Amino acid sequence: MKRQIWKTAIMMGVVACMLTACSGNKENSSVDSDRNKLTFLSNFPTDTLDPQLNYTPLRAGIVETLVKTTEDSQIEPWLAESWKTLDNGTTWEFIIRDEVVFQNGKTLDAKAVKSSLERTMKVSEAMKASLKIKEMKADGQKLTIVTQEPVASFPSELVHPNAAIIDVTEKNIEAHPVGTGPFEAVSSQPNSKLELKKNDQYWDGESKLDRVTMLYNEDANARTAGLQSGEADIVYRPEIENLELLKKDESLVVDVVPSLRTQMLLYNTNIEAFKDVNVRKAFDVLLNRQDVVDYTLAGQGVAANGPFLKEFSFAYDAPKKEFGTESAKEYLKKAGYKFESNQVVKDGKQLSFTILTYPYRPELPLMAQLIQSEAKKIGVKVEIQQVENIDEYMTTNSDWGIATYSLITAPRGDSSYFLNSVYGKDGFYNVGHYDNPALSDVIKQLNETVDEQKRVELTRQAGKIINDGVLHSAIVHPNNFVAYKENVKGWQMTKSEYYVITKDLALQE
After folding, report:
1. Residue 165 to residue 156: CA distance in whole angstroms
2. Chain segment 254-280, per-residue pLDDT in tens
3. Cα 490 from Cα 166, distance rounded (Å)
4. Which of the following CATH numbers is that of domain 261-479: 3.10.105.10, 3.40.50.2000, 3.40.50.1820, 1.20.1260.10?
5. For 309-351, how does the pLDDT look when each residue is reduced to its tens digit (9 = 90+)?
6. Average pLDDT over the chain, rounded to whole?
């Protein structure tokens, strides 16, 4: 029976990939005749190609940022060849690289960068809050940026994909952004397909590929089938239960690396129940982390003890917790709940709430199901609601109690991104508008501190406050994994998940 289900999934996946690849035949007939063309199939949703709202243009090699991150989580120059602070974190001077041109032939200078960053802050409240730019001045290739307050980690903020530099004078940015990367957009279909061609004017060397097709499918089985049928050359996050099977195929390469992600529970403290720290503690201990790794990730990950991987020096080493339904019940008793007729009750009402999840990462709906199942054992009623755009839903609705979420917490090897975006007053992920004065003070100090050891100490202090108050629950750190044909060369699996289609990717004859 299982074998038949698998065969059906394979066939459905092949059909889905073929339908996606064949849409727009007239336009792509010449594209498909190119031999030096690679097809990349992923679960990255792409409802827009606006780089300042979506990560795909950076991943596709269309755009670049002033600063990039290395595999050991250090930052290095990219479109900016150098930078320095003139006053310990408030005034920054960036020198923009010479001889770089946009894909339309226009020269990249400080004025163009200034215009691009201004647009970033206009269209993205999240980036406006993280960059904290007060004013900018462009002079040739020198860009001077003054922030609203000292931001010691400011250059690392510019690594963010939404800080990508584009020519803002071009129209139709949502469908055809003009950047400086090794590939430029030819055509796109939202959440389906993106066609790319080599940028012959690229400043950092010639791309080895002429064409790239990026396909999207949220179904992991369909992505796996796309690779096995030959429709795709590289598949990002194939079906997790079949990684071992794919490894046995000598025509394929499977690459697995630890990621910088954390799968977590976000609590809506606008809901009365979750204003109580003991209720948050109850759901923090309800799930055994290793069980979640085994069930939702088939062992492809590690249990989390906080938002940051333990390998980071600034990660707070939280005390061990007793997980399970009995521990959860004890915290609910402290919150004033009683257990009557197989229900958790307070003031005559059963504790109930909605948990949000989304299909983009299939392990998250599974985690929501685990919570629902375990909560039912102790008498809590949990409804699961799956949404397509969880960021938009969380920020515009308050009818949920917990959201399962996946976030790269330290993309630049630093803690400030996570702390500011999740717990800052204007943080994009601070959807419950949680305000902890002690934590806010530590974050403020962190933003103003340059000394690395002091930043480590401050981050650990923040970690203790977050852990003690259960401001969110870090559950697991998933692995990154990809499978590709053996003739694909130059692929590099990045922990940050930022850089995917590069000039070094090639297909061996």
Report:
1. 15
2. 999 888 899 999 999 989 999 999 999
3. 26
4. 3.10.105.10
5. 999 999 999 999 999 999 999 999 999 999 999 999 999 999 9
6. 90
pLDDT at 206 over 70: yes
Alpha carbons 152 and 506: distance in angstroms, whole number: 39
**Architecture of the CATH domain 63-172:** 3-Layer(aba) Sandwich (3.40)
What's the per-residue H, E or C state across 307-321? CCCCCCCCCCCCCCC
Domain with CATH 3.40.190.10 in the chain: 1-60+181-251+486-509, 63-172
Sign of the torsion formed by the C-alpha atoms of 384, 389, 390 and 394: negative
Alpha-carbon distance of 228 to 484, in angstroms, equals 10
Give the angle subtended at the CA of 119 by the CAs of 113 and 122, to the nearest 5°. 145
Q: How many CB atoms within 10 Å of residue 348?
A: 6
Q: Which CA distances in Å does 140 have to 98, 155, 301? A: 10, 20, 47
* 3-class secondary-structure state, position 28: helix
Looking at per-residue pLDDT, the higher value among 375 and 413 belongs to: 375
What pLDDT, on the 0 to 100 scale, is given for residue 28?
A: 42
- pLDDT exceeds 80 at position 10: no
CATH number assigned to the domain with residue range 1-60+181-251+486-509, chosen from the 4 options 3.30.420.40, 3.30.1360.120, 3.40.190.10, 3.40.50.720: 3.40.190.10
Burial of 123 (0-12, 13-18, 19+ CB in 10 A): middle
Of 163, 178, 182, 176, the C-alpha closest to 65 is: 163
Band of pLDDT at residue 147, cut at 50, 70 and 90? very high
Q: CA–CA distance from 386 to each of 207, 354, 393, 405 (Å)?
A: 40, 10, 10, 12
Q: Is 97 helix (H, G, I), strand (E, B) or coil?
A: coil
Q: Note whether 66 and 79 are within 8 A (CB).
A: yes
Convert 223-241 to b/e letters by CB count within 10 Å (16 or more is b): bbbbbbeebbbbbbbbbbe
Q: How confident is the model at residue 34 (pLDDT cuts 50, 70, 90)?
A: low
Total-model pTM: 0.84
CA angle 79, 81, 85 (to 5 degrees): 110
